[in-house]
Design goal:
The protein is α/β, with parallel strands linked by helices and 214 residues long. The chain has helices at residues 2-15, 19-22, 25-34, 68-83, 92-101, 107-113, 178-194; strands at residues 50-57, 88-89, 118-130, 135-148, 153-165, 171-172. Helix 4 crosses helix 7 (178-194). The longest helix is centred in the C-terminal third of the chain and has 17 residues, at 178-194.
Amino acid sequence: MIALIRKLLALCLCVLPCVGLVGCSALATAMWITGASDVKPEYDGFKDKKVAVVARPVVALTYRDAHVDKELARRIQLILTNRVRKAQWIDQQKVEKWLDEHEWETFPEVGKGVGADLVIGVEIEDFSLYKGQTVYQGTATLRVAVYDCATNQKVYEKSLSNINYPPNSVVPTSEVPESVFRREFLSVLAEAVARLFHSYDPHEFWALDTRTLR
């Protein structure tokens, strides 16, 4: 904290001559550079816990999107493995193997089956890729919850409603293969879920309309 304050003060001293020109934006920039403006996670109870990530659709998906739930869970787990290192993340292949071999109803069942203390459960309430026959605009609604496997209790819940990608435009189907657009949209959804559980810089998410499809 002391080092952060010193860095911030040094930056303020550097920008003081420009205060008349840029006003408070200099301080905002300094906070951004030092990470002081990061958004904190909504739930942060993963320390020293074994955590599994599971997603499932609660609506019928088309045959082309049949594996969206597994792909979404993989992407969420990958982000959180890199961003929340104080937790022990259950290998996604182990989770998928258990899911393929068992009938289940509740997320804590899955957690207990793979040896997890907590489960991040993601219910896909809506998912589509098309705005019309010739243009893409991904739309999804997700319900995210964290369950304690020992008590079967829900310890956190958040609904992510009407996520649109791109948020203010469409992408012609002639420009991008469906598989590429689906992959990009799932990355956006995975980031939206993962941000509930790790700190992040809000500036990173201001330009989704101009994001390059990978």
